[in-house]
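User: Hey, quick favor. My workstation is busy. Could you predict this chain's structure for me?
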Amino acid sequence: MKNLGRAMIVGEPTSGSCQPPKPFQVSDSDIFLAIPTTHSDTAQGLAWEGTGIAPHIPVPADTALDTAKGILNKHFSGQK
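Assistant: No problem, here it is.
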């Protein structure tokens, strides 16, 4: 969404975890292995695994919602 210009990200960088593991049971034991079975890639470049996605407007997580609401209110009122 960010690379396509369809979203504005407000807050902190994401954790960079985009390859969720799938659990596999080892035989009939109580042992499970968690192995990533997918790989994210974008037309814009490399996957964000381990690096995360940087926000357009970096603010602490606890103020992100209020900041986003303020930006949205300014947008709808025609302010910049």
